[in-house]
Design brief:
Elements: H1 2-35, E1 40-45, E2 47-63, E3 66-70, E4 75-79, E5 86-87, E6 92-97, H2 100-148, H3 153-200, E7 202-204, E8 209-214, E9 221-222, E10 233-239, E11 242-249, E12 261-266, E13 269-281, E14 290-298, E15 309-325, E16 330-332, E17 335-342, E18 345-350, E19 352-356, E20 360-365, E21 372-376, E22 390-395
Parallel strand pairs: 1-22
Antiparallel strand pairs: 1-21, 2-11, 2-15, 3-10, 4-6, 4-9, 5-8, 6-7, 8-10, 11-14, 12-13, 12-15, 13-14, 15-20, 16-17, 17-18, 19-20
Helix pairs in contact: 2-3
């Protein structure tokens, strides 16, 4: 009767042995899993920030008005300025060489000679007028004496003839004086024309500005012309009033409006930030990838000059709002959201976003202040919902 009992006990021990052999790998695997370190993640807290939405683009500083200076006389050009030089109104920019000295001497000699001729003819006229006065008195006396019978008729007739001759001399001399004065006026006019040519030979800046282009080289022959656009173009002068021409992406054009603030950095002064405001938004032809925006400078733009390239950033919106770092944003199942860490486990939470700046994005809905979100490393984006993590550092970046 004792043998069956012993067999049952042996069977039970065999079963226990088999089960222990099967359970040991499970226990070992569980021990390995539990001993494996948790993935380390970087985190940041959701909190309010001053948000700023921007649109960036390339730009070019230009003069609001550019004046092209042309030759007023023909001759050889001698430049007295260089490209990019800042000049003041009235400053000499160039001279045009020509036969001015010899022409001036000839004109001066003609004026002097004609003035002397006028003086001589006027002196002769005064003498003729004096002779007429004497002849008139003599004729009067002769007439009175002839009437009283004291002189012969022949003496009276001679006195009358002398008076007529004197009157003719005065008339002729008055004509000579008028001709001499006319010749003198012509000489003076010719001299003034020469003076105008000499004035045009000295090229001066009409306004304050910067030499933005030089069309004619030094020692080059230039010519005058009739009308504002027919003389040889010498150089271009960009006025001091500047404007900025900017290009932005087509997807951003709807966010840009006149009056928005702009920060501009020019390549010649990379450490300085110039301020401006959007003055015009251009809507170009359909299909263009970029659209023009004009920016009006605001404040001090000392150091900036026309023709210099630049980078501009337009501030399209600003407000204080809950924000999350852009590093925390990820996409799952066509939804944009973040991994929120709570009680050591991560949960994907979809977000509705507003302003998205360079570093942070505004949260419209989906997260609350104080939520801790995963910002890195990159591998953390593949963590499944509910995964346990270890926080390397919780901050407020």
């Amino acid at each position: 009767m004792t043998l069956p009992v012993r067999r049952g006990r042996a069977t039970t021990r065999s079963r226990r042995f088999v089960l222990s052999i099967l359970f040991l790998p499970v226990v070992a695997l569980l021990a390995v899993v539990l001993s494996r370190p948790l993935p380390m993640v970087d985190t940041a807290a959701v909190r309010e920030r001053d948000m700023r939405a921007t649109v960036a683009g390339d730009c070019l500083v230009q003069a609001q008005q550019t004046t092209v200076i042309r030759a007023g006389v023909s001759g050889i050009l001698q430049l007295e300025t260089t490209l990019g030089s800042r000049v003041r109104a009235g400053q000499v920019l160039a001279r045009i060489g020509g036969p001015w000295v010899a022409a001036d001497r000839r004109a001066a000699a003609a004026v002097a000679e004609s003035a002397a001729a006028v003086a001589r003819e006027r002196l002769t006229l005064r003498r003729a007028q004096a002779g007429l006065w004497r002849a008139d008195r003599a004729a009067g006396r002769a007439t009175a004496l002839w009437r009283e019978g004291h002189v012969a008729a022949s003496a009276h007739d001679a006195a009358v003839r002398d008076l007529a001759v004197a009157r003719g001399d005065v008339a002729a001399q008055e004509a000579a004086v008028a001709e001499a004065e006319s010749l003198h006026r012509t000489a003076v006019a010719d001299q003034q024309v020469g003076a105008m040519a000499r004035r045009d030979a000295v090229v001066r800046a009409p306004v304050n500005g910067v030499v933005s282009n030089i069309y004619a080289g030094d020692r080059q022959r230039v010519r005058a012309g009739q009308g504002p656009h027919r003389g040889t173009a010498l150089l271009a002068l960009a006025g001091d009033t500047l404007t900025v021409e900017m290009l932005i992406a087509a997807v951003d054009v709807e966010r840009v409006d006149a009056g928005q603030q702009v920060a501009v950095r020019v390549v010649s002064h990379p450490d300085d930030v110039f301020r401006g405001a959007v003055s015009m938004v251009g809507y170009g032809q359909q299909g263009l990838a970029r659209f023009p925006v004009r920016v009006a400078p605001v404040g001090d733009w000392t150091g900036a000059r026309a023709g210099v390239s630049c980078d501009a950033v337009i501030t399209t919106a600003t407000r204080t709002a809950l924000a999350v770092p852009n590093l925390a944003l990820l996409s799952r199942d066509d939804a944009l959201g973040v991994l929120v860490v709570r009680d050591g486990r991560v949960t994907f939470r979809p977000l509705s976003l507003g302003i998205q700046g360079d570093m942070h994005a505004e949260i419209v809905s989906g997260a609350t202040a104080g939520d801790v979100v995963v910002t890195g490393p990159v591998e953390a984006t593949d963590l499944p919902p509910g995964a346990r993590v270890a926080i390397r550092g919780a901050g407020s970046r």
